[in-house]
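quick one, 323 residues, struct below
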Amino acid sequence: MSEQASNGSTVTVIIAFVANLAVAIAKTIAAIITGSAALVAEAAHSWADTGNEIFLLVAERRGAKPADAKHPLGHGREAYVWSMFAAFGLFSVGSAVSIWHGIQSLSAGEAETSYLVGYIVLGLSALFEGFSFIQSVRQARGRAVRLRRHTVDYVMNGSNPTLRAVFAEDAAALIGIAIAFLAMLLHQITGIAAFDAIGSILVGVLLGIVAIVLMDRNRRFLVGETVSPAVRDDLLESMLENPSIASVSYLHIEFVGAGRVYVVAAIDLTGDDRESALALRLREAEVELEKLPMIQEVVLTPSAPGRKSLEVGSADTGPEQLS
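---
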């Protein structure tokens, strides 16, 4: 991940942390005053998000550490580990508390509540969460445009776990606020407290779905997800543009961090060098390819005689680019 991209993600996470902390405090106060089950769920949601941002800040910091002797491919995958912790926290704290409290509230009787306080807090929460969401969208859109991808596709299928987590959490928060507002409104109109409890359960289910999606995405990158056919073609094209490389017969690419890949390739160099010169030229080609911002490390080996050369566009490609 480039320093600029890392800094952009860190700013996005910090903004999300401040927004979630302010919203969590406001929702907690409102939940105490109103006794609304939906607001209790939303308060738990915001506290879980606030805690998750700490995990994401750790993910940004540890994932950006450079390669060393024990970690020759860098520490990029640490970002997926800590983002996994954040997603699990969203599931175990936010989702479980919301559903449990909602189920308990189903059997509770009608309680006095201050709807005005609840509506004001939900409105302020929407402003804070909306500001954080706009920041994550702005960062994602700028990167997606450069890569010729749809913003949502870039966020959900790209390799940046912290941006994906903030984007998903803020989107879920805005949907949760809408659910809480509707639950309170139906409670106020009908006098049926069960609407409030149902709102709490729905918020919990929403958080559970988001957490499961985020955990699955991080799991895929942790176990070594390969790039899309279009990314493979982009990199193959870059390799073939190197004047020393005549053809490529084997190419393996996998993510080792946000926007960083590890490459193993079998190539045929131009000319007909002796073995000693061949090794030197292979290393020179590796050094040249490692100047590309997305490549963490590349290992090149001579192609076996008779191996078919790979061609750009030979695989099924789509609009995806390296993220």
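The first helix runs from residue 3 to 34.
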